[in-house]
């Protein structure tokens, strides 16, 4: 464990030093540091979120899992084999073999815990103060298939097969300790020449993120001083699976799309500005005397709430719809403008397309950050007509760990 | 349409010239040529297969769809906007907008038709001679959710978001003509320094493919001379969704894995050879007098069947299992070595992981190529213990088209 014992982090030269040290290979992100990798790390192109429910009966078993997971994370993020285990004894093949020949591709594994962990017999530390179930929001279409859970593994890398290999390596540590509850996988594409990635509505997504290494970043993301001491250097992660009604969006005129968001799709600038990073002017009025950025425009509704958005696009095509039982909460008649064809009764309509955003927001105060923003948005936001929140979870992201420690070594 | 009117293609300088012309940008693959792009094209990193069922009532409507699809393919593969349509009139946004700023990333769209197309009223051309339903194979675990269909769009690119954008652009052409039946998405990762990609068992996949541009390639892939004249320059595509029981595989010792395949996982060489591209020696015997490559080793069972394998790995995590109705044909008790935990009853076991291969084989004679190989394999193959075929379809891949033509212009 690095020499970090709690208290509020100051964003400064010290803060920069507390980031995971850059390693000799640019495709390796060190797993070690005061904070876990995969948060301040420049966003990788692919991610799988793996959420598990614990099956252990006490804190000591949970500790064994965390020690084992940490050793695995430390090795696989360097492109090395995971340690031998009951399931994979010395000399057996290991799940990462199938990524042989691939670079580590900036693999990171970021681990968080849900409220259930603090109910384990033998757990003596108190839960993070803000680790409470998210409230219900107006308009939620939550599907119990992809929500909740005791632990999250956010696995990110610049190569999809490396993410897949890491997922299998981690899954191999779970038997006897936990069972996978849900998984989600996504991607982002970085424009030629760099810049903010676009979501599946074509809008730049992440424009208002605090800059990495800034005071604002630290003040937004890392734990507040009133949190339990063991949690210092951690964060909270709010996950929402947000289905985007792409057919409805695509049929909406461009200027109306821009009005819905309050930004121009073309360059990401607010309707009152010239460039992507210009501050929106919420007071500016147009020739007709009304505000340029409408009262229910998305950018106005969520203005002033700081969080680190580290989201991924997803495109499951018809996969989840095909695999779906009944009833399908994603199925909406308004997405079926066309008469059913001969084949429609068995696989059918256009509402089956499951495309959207795996919204991931890091922050140290979900109440005043994600929850407050989402309440404002749920209340009134022109964007609501085009999206549905179908998955939801909140986790406390553990502090970082050091070469001689393990994830959660201040906790258990 | 290029000047190509039928007859068997000769692999020669002429054949090379008949390949889609390299364009000025290395990230653009021309859609035009005697053959469709996306077959001889060096395999891109991401693919989505979109299969649709027609809802048109006659060949003339099908022709309109093909004209529209072709215009769309020609434009989006150059990174340009799709043409205006009823669904997306001039000035409306278009589905590719969300890929703004991304390169075309070697996008290709390869279109094939199923047997249903030839039953359309007004269709005068005869069906390809070998376009027959695949026979049932011993061991099949086919799931009706991902099989069959009237049309396939194989969408490939080096960027996942570009594939997704192309899928939406094509889907926008379907209303009134077709409905999507199933989709599948996959990836391959190319090792540092190049070479054959690995599948989810860690084995190199595609070693025995005929080299692009060779006589063997042309003799294997492009239509035989006894096919209907309109079909010249086309091919057949056999799709199989092959679930790989990774937990069982991972628990198998390395030397046994190598024996199952008949090749070494490490370098892909046959057990009788030194290098990946050495020909397997099926007669060679070891010290104990038995053949080095076992009688039921995979490489022996499928030896001598030539086809162009252009497969993609897939990793759906627990996605399809979570979304699954009942009964789940993928669920097998032998994959549940661990006692169910507290959460197991609702999401549970390790058999839920849906990982494997989107097997895509191009060839001009499915009977003597895929079907013969699969019959040999179904009969006896040590690999069968580790895989399940869960999806199946066959399509006739249309000949290529030219700047003034459209996909299927020799057909309808």
* Relative helix content of chain A: 10-25%
Distance between the termini of chain A: 14 Å
Oligomeric organization of the protein chains: homodimer
Evaluate the radius of gyration of chain A: 22 Å
* Major beta-sheet overview of chain A: 9 strands, antiparallel
Number of separate helices of chain A: 9
Overall strand count of chain A? 9
Structure explained in plain terms:
- The structure is a homodimer.
- Chain A is α+β, with helices and mostly antiparallel strands and about 400 residues long.
- Chain A is built from nine helices and nine strands.
- Chain A has helices at about 15-20, 60-75, 160-170, 215-220, 245-250, 255-260, 300, 320-325, 365-380, and strands spanning about 45-55, 110-115, 150-155, 180-185, 235-245, 310, 310-315, 355-365, 385-395.
- Mean pLDDT of chain A is about 85; it is low at about 1-25 and about 325-350.
- Chains A, B: It comes from Microbacterium salsuginis.
- Chains A, B: Belongs to the DyP-type peroxidase family.
- Chains A, B: Keywords: Heme, Iron, Metal-binding, Oxidoreductase, Peroxidase, Signal.
Topology:
Two copies of one chain form a homodimer.
Chain A: H1 13-18, E1 46-54, H2 59-76, E2 108-113, E3 151-157, H3 160-171, E4 178-187, H4 215-221, E5 235-244, H5 246-250, H6 254-261, H7 298-301, E6 308-309, E7 312-315, H8 319-323, E8 355-363, H9 367-379, E9 387-397
Antiparallel strand pairs in A: 1-3, 1-4, 2-3, 2-9, 5-8, 5-9, 6-8, 7-8
Protein name (chains A, B): Dyp-type peroxidase
InterPro entries (chains A, B): Dimeric_a/b-barrel, Dyp_perox_C, Dyp_perox_N, Dyp_peroxidase
Organism (chains A, B): Microbacterium salsuginis
